[in-house]
Design brief:
The protein is globular, with a radius of gyration of 31 Å. It folds into four domains: about 280 residues, Transferase(Phosphotransferase) domain 1 (Transferase(Phosphotransferase), domain 1); about 35 residues; about 270 residues, TolB, C-terminal domain (Neuraminidase, 6 Propeller), CATH 2.120.10.30; about 270 residues, TolB, C-terminal domain (Neuraminidase, 6 Propeller). About 15% of the residues lie in helices and about 35% in strands. It has about 900 residues and is α+β, with helices and mostly antiparallel strands. It is built from twelve helices and 60 strands. The strands form 14 sheets. A six-stranded antiparallel β-sheet has the order 1-2-3-4-6-5, covered by helices on one side.
Length: about 900
């Protein structure tokens, strides 16, 4: 029932009804204590009668009340009187934007001014972690002073009944809280993001979609998505593309581009940060109307063009050269030309640990890492050839020297940065290092990053690296460095501190090498300065360009999306692209988040005979045999989450999922087979849990890893009393033990600061622990150490990963040089070991410092292995194509002018 004028609610006197809707009734009122006019929103009775919802709202209201921005209507507080719960808010006088657009389209200049103010409000809220969730013209007010105020920030979330983690239609801001149980959806569905319409959780990108709807309506005078019923509107939001033909004809072409990016159905393809959108709008405001710029672009897509294109390019170069030589007439502008290079059937980008392609600075050569080799392609030739000398070193992350005559790369086999001449030959080791994701060749030195240290540089002819930029742990981690401004500054990506890199929260920064001053350029990852005068960077699978003044080291305009569908590395966050100094762009098309390749599970005996398990290929990891040999525990990544499943070796073809909630993996069986131990990030804290293997009961937490570290269980002694696990942060892991009976306090077992110790396993008698270590940043080796204390023994000299004992303790198996090797071990009367010998097992997934990807059966007769599919299996190939864009700088300069 509506309140009457004169009703007293505590110290507030109702003076007029302003409106009503699904979120409650809104009244004008007088604050009798402070003698001011306020807006009072009465919360629905169904809401007020639920103590849990009130408690949830109180928590959210505290955050909403903290918003303080000139374009945000202030929430003064929440109060209760005579059984009614109500909000006290700033009273905003003026006209709702919804009323304004009813009169028709808003002038371009005015619409952009209002749009900028809305984005400023959204940016301030997002910085506080508040998402609006119900942005629409009715929630935007234009005051008599022509100020813009956004209303009802975050109230949709604050008034939701269900927990955030539960997908439900109540997550939609257009649901009436009074009618939720009846399933009634109100008319503001036209401004919903598709994920909200589906009933999944909204985030800041949902506000970006809603903002796009609002801006479209301001410019056209009609909603972006419409229909005769709510169902039709929702269908339009989910399925139809927005019709941009109704936009004013004289718009700056960047405005339709901006709207397309806002209104993408997939959140990953939208603007990822409202601040970038705001900066783009501010740039457009200076030139809101179109300027005719002729753009010529040719796209080659047919099979015949793929075959004839190199010849055509050579012919084009000859013609252009001839025209250039004829100085009586000016040369024609170069065409922006696009075409694909398709890999042969025996090549595939199966592993994607980081950058896999590079174009030479002069634009004449392309190098890429595929199928465990480096391939070099002269852009005037039809085929690529293996780079002799480098392809035996398990190479990835290629990069060119400034003169385009050398190729640098990272060798997995040698754990080192190496280089080789483009003609091939012996490789030269530059330095040992713990796996930089990218490197940059600047003059006579090479710059790279190393986790736990910062940014380093080393002479290009080889030597000892020195730290160029040192980072404290609380500052985060550095990636993708590039020397700029004539060697006076370094540009790099800075990710927030934490065990797992949060790429979507990363920043592109530039730091003076003289003063150490650091500036944030933009939010994104894998930023690079290119000679066209831009910093290019990626957000999800989209590449943006930002005009950048190299002398002032600052942006001179807003970022513009230039390229969609660029593959992204799951480990380094880097975009799989490269740009030459003369504007040739190469990139790998694909998903923004690269999925792990499909793998198969199999048994292999000591002779190499393999028996496939009747399970479909999937992103399996760390398979473990149960003590009775009847079950397998394995980690699976399904593209969205990582979890542990159990497979019974009884002829079944299905897996039973064991873990739910958070990211889970690294299973370890208890000796009696009763429990499975695993790592998990559930409850927001990394740690180790154990769960009954039959899936009954509730998982029990055993450890809590302090931020930004993580814990990974690796083995349990045969008596079931002691767990050994790995703990630390990226690039600095140590081995600990945990007594399962008693105080359960972790104790250090192997500690070597600044290096990686991992994959520790107890011997069958519990007296020894084998593990891998790259102490002193050397090649990873296998060590054995008595438990609980004693001198260690180095078992390998040529590298090794993933040790595991034979059931009788007389042999130690490990992975090295892409092979499985065996070493005879004697522990009595003294410890001794023999010479490693390889086993004839082929096709195994290459091991590294990640969880061990094979196991041994309890009888010691067979190995449980993960195998890579054949490169010819197209479904297993992350990408089979390289896209090439010639003269890309011309397109950059046209779409993103440099001041």
């Amino acid at each position: 029932m509506a309140l009457t004028v004169g009703t007293q609610l505590g110290s507030y006197e109702i003076t007029a009804l302003l409106g009503k809707g699904g979120m409650g009734e809104v009244y004008r009122a007088r604050d009798t204590k402070l003698d001011r006019s306020v807006a009072v929103k009465i919360l629905p009775e169904a809401f007020a009668q639920n103590p849990d919802r009130i408690a949830r709202f109180d928590r959210e209201a505290k955050v909403l009340a903290s918003l303080n921005h000139p374009n945000i209507a202030t929430l003064h507080g929440k109060e209760e009187s005579e059984g009614k719960h109500f909000l006290v808010m700033e009273l905003v006088e003026g006209e709702a934007l919804a009323e304004r657009v009813k009169r028709g389209p808003i002038a371009i200049d005015e619409a952009l001014r209002i749009a900028c103010k809305i984005t400023e409000a959204l940016e301030a809220a997002h910085d506080k972690g508040v998402v609006h969730r119900d942005l629409k013209p009715a929630n935007v007010m234009i005051t008599p002073e022509d100020k813009v105020k956004v209303l009802d920030f975050g109230l949709a979330k604050a008034m939701v009944d269900a927990p955030e983690s539960t997908p439900t239609l109540s997550n939609s801001p257009t649901l009436s809280l009074a009618a939720t149980q009846a399933g009634v959806i109100l008319g503001t569905a036209a401004y919903m993001a598709p994920e909200q319409a589906k009933g999944t959780e909204a985030d800041s990108r949902s506000d970006v979609f809603s903002f796009g709807c609002v801006l479209y309506e301001m410019l056209t005078g009609r909603p972006a998505f419409h229909g005769e019923s709510v169902s039709e509107i929702l269908a339009a939001v989910l399925i139809r593309e927005v019709d941009l033909s109704g936009l004013p004809a004289d718009l700056n072409p960047r405005i339709p581009d901006l709207l397309r990016r806002c209104l993408q159905k997939n959140p990953k393809r939208r603007w990822q940060a409202i601040g970038d959108l705001r900066a783009e709008l501010e740039t457009i405001v200076s030139a809101p109307r179109s300027v005719a710029v002729p753009i010529s672009s040719t796209i080659y897509s047919s099979a015949i063009w793929r075959r004839l294109l190199p010849v055509a390019i050579v012919a084009l170069l000859i013609i252009v050269a001839g025209v250039t030589g004829w100085r009586l007439k000016p040369s024609a502008p170069a065409l922006v030309t696009r075409f694909p290079l398709v890999l042969p059937e025996d090549q595939a980008f199966i592993r994607t640990p980081s950058h896999l392609i590079a174009i030479s600075p002069d634009g004449t050569k392309l190098v890429y890492a595929a199928s465990g080799k480096l391939f070099l392609r002269d852009m005037s030739q039809m085929q690529a050839r293996p780079v002799q000398g480098a392809s035996d070193n398990d190479p990835v992350r290629p990069f060119f020297s400034p003169d385009s005559q050398w190729i640098g790369f990272y060798s997995f086999r040698d754990s080192a940065l190496e280089k080789v001449a483009i003609a091939g030959g012996a490789t030269i080791t530059i330095c040992k290092t713990n796996g930089p994701t990218t490197a940059y060749w600047n003059g006579n030195e090479i710059v790279f990053h190393e986790l736990g240290k910062g940014i380093l540089r080393v002479p290009a002819d080889g030597g000892q690296p020195e730290i160029l930029v040192r980072l404290k742990r609380e500052e985060g981690s550095a990636y993708h460095p590039q020397i700029v401004d004539g060697g006076r500054a370094v540009l790099f990506t800075l990710t927030p501190p934490g065990e797992q890199p949060r790429w979507d929260e990363a920043q592109i920064v530039v730091q003076s090498l003289a003063s150490g001053e650091r500036r944030v350029i933009v939010r994104g990852f894998d930023g690079h300065y290119v000679p066209s005068g831009h910093v290019i960077y990626a957000v999800a699978g989209t590449v943006f360009a930002l005009p950048f003044d190299l002398k002032k080291l600052e942006a001179t305009g807003g970022a513009v999306p230039m390229l969609d569908g660029v593959m992204r590395s799951p480990i380094s966050g880097g975009a799989q692209l490269s740009v030459s100094d003369n504007g040739t762009l190469v990139y790998l098309p694909g998903d923004a988040v690269v999925r792990l390749p499909r793998r198969t599970l199999a048994f292999a005996d000591h002779s190499g005979k393999t028996e496939m398990l009747p399970l479909p290929p999937a992103a399996y990891e760390s398979p473990r045999m149960s003590p009775d040999g009847k079950q397998i525990a394995v980690t699976i990544f399904d593209g969205n989450e990582t979890y542990v499943s159990i497979y019974a070796l009884s002829g079944d073809t299905t897996l039973r999922r064991l873990t739910f909630g958070g990211e889970n993996g690294s299973p370890v069986w208890s000796p009696d087979g009763k429990y499975v131990f695993f790592r998990s990030s559930r409850d927001g804290k990394e740690g180790i849990f154990r769960h009954l293997a039959d899936g009954t009961g509730t998982p029990e937490r055993l450890t809590i890893a302090e931020d930004p570290t993580g814990h990974q269980p690796t083995s349990i002694d045969p008596f079931g009393r002691t767990l050994v696990f790995v703990g630390g942060r990226r690039g600095d892991y140590d081995i600990f033990t945990l007594t399962l009976e008693g105080d359960r306090k972790p104790k250090p077992f192997v500690e070597v600061p600044g290096s990686l110790q991992a994959q520790a396993v107890f011997s069958p008698d519990g007296q020894w622990v084998a593990y891998m270590s790259n102490e002193l940043q050397q090649l990873s080796q296998i060590y054995v150490q008595p438990y609980p204390t004693g001198a260690k023994y180095q078992i390998t000299t040529e590298g090794g990963y993933a040790p595991v004992w034979s059931p009788d303790g007389k042999q130690l198996f490990y992975s090295g040089n892409n092979k499985l090797l065996a070493v005879d071990i004697r522990t009595q009367p003294t410890f001794s070991y023999g010479k490693p010998s390889p086993l004839p097992i082929v096709g195994m997934v290459r091991e590294s410092a990640s969880p061990r990807n094979y196991d041994i059966t309890p009888d010691g007769k067979r190995f449980l292995v993960l195998q890579q599919p054949s490169p010819s299996d197209v479904n297993s190939r992350s990408s089979v194509q390289i896209n090439v864009v010639l003269n890309w700088f011309r397109e950059l300069q046209q779409r993103v002018p440099v001041k």
